[in-house]
Amino acid sequence: MGTDELPELFIPFTQTSVGHESQQGTGLGLSISQQFVQLMGSQIQVHSEVGQGSQFRFSLDVTALKSQEMVGLSSPSVMGLKPSPIPYRILVVEDQLESRILMEQRLHGLGFEVKDVDSGEAAVRQQAAWLPHLIWMDIRLPGMSGLEATQRIKQQPNPPIVIALTANAFNEDREQAIAAGCDDFVAKPCTDKAIWQILHHYLKLEYQYASEQYTELSASPGQVFADQQVGIQQLKKMPQPWREALKLAAQSLSSPRIAQVMEQLPQQQTELHSMVAKLVEDFRYDQLLEMLASCESSTR
């Protein structure tokens, strides 16, 4: 990156020339990362040379925990599948080699039968030949897109579950995925927990945990999407000036500013308050802005 681009690097929704050329991302990643680091009392520093690369660094003061202090800090880990008479077959469709390898390692480690392909055309052929139970489908592929591949696969008898993988978790991408026949969607990079939730929900399988106590998995991303639609309906009931104030606060990535706007909510709006608070807690300012944008587009 050129030195002239560095001052704008952490501004929300701002991308460098490299970002524009790659046509990936939304310009929020570094802004949110900087806020994470600032919450821990530090600052991300950048050194970049055109044609050489960029270095991002920060320092933190940390204290090592004793082993007894760590008990209860983490949730039970999924160690594998409970015994089942069905050998679950999963197909991974992803054009990025590193992403394919990572997903395949995750699934193999639990005991799934896994195959991977790097194109929509190969996905259609592999589905017909191997009959997987579930497909992880990247929707942006060279040649035949993941959406077109899904449409063709869903036209076959007894089609598998298809889960869309998308780098942009915007409403438009979700709606296109569902319209093409995808059963659900997960935003990349996807966490282990999101993967286990999807597989548990659609394949009705059960896991073995590191802890003896079984912990029920929470709602699938599809249910989260449904909850967001409820949130959009609640936001629509609020005055437009209030929504605009919330939008400006969210764009600033400032939780104190958002809290000031939320203080103006009527007391009976407890569900809306809880939803916005959860999004802010998870640093999902992008989802909050999507919901507000949906309110504006539907009122025009």
Topology:
Layout: H1 17-22, H2 29-39, E1 45-49, E2 53-57, E3 78-81, E4 89-93, H3 97-110, E5 113-117, H4 120-130, E6 134-138, H5 146-154, E7 161-166, H6 171-180, E8 184-187, H7 192-203, E9 207-209, H8 221-236, H9 240-251, H10 255-262, H11 270-281, H12 285-298
Helix pairs in contact: 4-5, 8-12, 9-10, 9-12, 10-11
Give an overview of the whole structure.
This protein has 300 residues and is an alpha/beta fold. The protein has three domains: 3-57, no CATH class; 80-209, Rossmann fold (3-Layer(aba) Sandwich), CATH 3.40.50; 221-298, no CATH class. The chain has helices at residues 17-22, 29-39, 97-110, 120-130, 146-154, 171-180, 192-203, 221-236, 240-251, 255-262, 270-281, 285-298, and strands at residues 45-49, 53-57, 78-81, 89-93, 113-117, 134-138, 161-166, 184-187, 207-209. A five-stranded parallel β-sheet has the order 5-4-6-7-8, with helices on both faces. The chain has a two-stranded antiparallel sheet with strand order 1-2. The chain has a two-stranded antiparallel sheet with strand order 3-9. Strand 6, helix 5 and strand 7 (161-166) form a beta-alpha-beta unit. Helix 4 runs parallel beside helix 5 (146-154) and helix 10 (255-262) runs antiparallel to helix 11 (270-281). The chain is globular and about 55 Å long.
